[in-house]
Amino acid sequence: MPAEPTEERRPRGGRPTRAAAAERDERLLEIAAAMFMEQGFEATAMDRVAEAAGVGKATLYARYQDKAALFAAVLRRRIMEVYEPLEIEAASTGDDLACGLQRVADGLLGKMFTPGAVALGRILSAQAPNFPDLAEMAVREGYGRQAGIVEAVLRRHGGDPRYRLGDIPLAADMFLALVLGRASRLALLGVTLDREQLAQRTRAAVAFFLRGVAA
User: Rounded distance, CA 28 to CA 60, Å?
Assistant: First the structure.
């Protein structure tokens, strides 16, 4: 029987250093994400992920008890990669409301409609009935962060007499529906919009929203 793959350099005590363990986990999730996106959920085997990442099966199952837990970690990592830069930008920009919302809309569409993001979205849609906890996590950490980004922009202009924003969480929800609604459904069906179509949609969505909240 072939030996288990070497996982990482270990110190004298036999345990990986904290830095080595973090690097191993990052590589594992990167490889797992690529396999999920290329092969889909059902065709991605835990044993193959372990082999590709160069870790032992025991190590993989100690970290992620099953494939759903591994996919949840992949999804959480992708959510951080997508939304963290947008959150920082939304919190620091000094744009007026129109420019701030346009920046957010462009950023969301640019990140969410990449082939990898669409592939993960399809897997999530297909597996949500089987793994409701996974769907709840995606809504809480994915949509929740989208809404938080828009709310941060709206709250900065809550006192502007030109606008009547009212219930800001509701306003953020309505804005996201305008920007992402139909485009996200088309993407899940494999219908992609080109850059100019997406740009046209975001400009129209921002203008429509601003007319709705104008004082």
Answer: 9
Do 78 and 120 contact (CB within 8 A), yes or no? yes
- Length of the chain, in residues: 215
Angle subtended at Cα 63 by Cα 59 and Cα 69, rounded to the nearest 5 degrees? 130
Overall pTM surpassing 0.85 (yes/no): no
Q: Mark which of 5, 30, 63 sits at the end of a domain.
A: 63
Maximum distance among all alpha carbons in the chain?
A: 74
Q: Does residue 199 lie in a domain region?
A: yes
Q: Which of 124, 144, 26 is nearest to 77 (CA)?
A: 26
Whether residue 130 sits in one domain with residue 58: no
Distances, alpha carbon 163 to alpha carbons 32, 39, 167, in Å: 46, 48, 12
Determine contact, residues 53/32, Cβ cutoff 8 Å. Answer: yes
- More confident call, 5 vs 159: 159
209 and 169 belong to one structural domain: yes
- Does 96 fall in a domain? yes
178 and 209 fall within a common domain: yes
CA-to-CA distance for 175 and 180, rounded, in angstroms? Answer: 9
CA 168 vs CA 61, 104, 149: distances in Å: 43, 16, 12
* Count of domains forming the chain: 2
pLDDT tens-digit profile of 149-208?
999 999 988 888 999 999 999 999 999 999 988 777 777 777 777 788 888 888 999 999
